[in-house]
Amino acid sequence: MSGKLVFILAFCSARAIAEIEIIESPPLTNWGEWYNYEGCPYASYVYGFQLRVHEFLDFSVTDDTALNSLYLLCSTPDARRAGYEIFVPDAHTPPLTMISSKVGLYGDLRREWQCSSPRFAIGFELRVLEPQGVSWDDVAASNLILHCGYGESLLEFATLDDTALNNVRMGCCDPV
């Protein structure tokens, strides 16, 4: 089962790990194994993401893997607030840390998506294509929507047997 990834990441700081509640996507596919838990550094939280996507070209490609990597961007509330107060509400915040429990090999790295300053992620949705059957290529996960505070949602649209990312588990906690 090479090339199959399942991620476990954290929305919140690793120091608060005892207080973390794991939230996960419904397991529509499960062709992989869970990798090590990786959390944001102490007092930092997820505020954005970046995807590596193996783009669907056409049906002549016999092994599309779709979403290969998910990177979560971590920052502290002070850094996010400084960007908001000094610059503008939608100022780009450079990540203090990018986390990803395992990185796939195929596809192109897409742009970073960030919650508006000073907001942080509060939930996610994973788009997963169900198993396609014997004659078709299975791709599993193909997109992620990250939910930020105040109703904001971030998503990147990405357009048959190796799969890459299949499921996501994320830790969720109260801000420290």
UniProtKB/TrEMBL annotation:
Matches recorded under PANTHER family: VITELLINE MEMBRANE OUTER LAYER 1 HOMOLOG A-RELATED, VITELLINE MEMBRANE OUTER LAYER PROTEIN I-RELATED
Keywords (A to Z) from UniProt: Signal
Signal peptide: 1-18
Protein name: Vitelline membrane outer layer protein 1
Cellular component annotations (GO), alphabetically ordered: extracellular space
Source domain of life: Eukaryota
InterPro entries in the cross-refs: VOMI (IPR005515)
Pfam families from the UniProt entry: VOMI
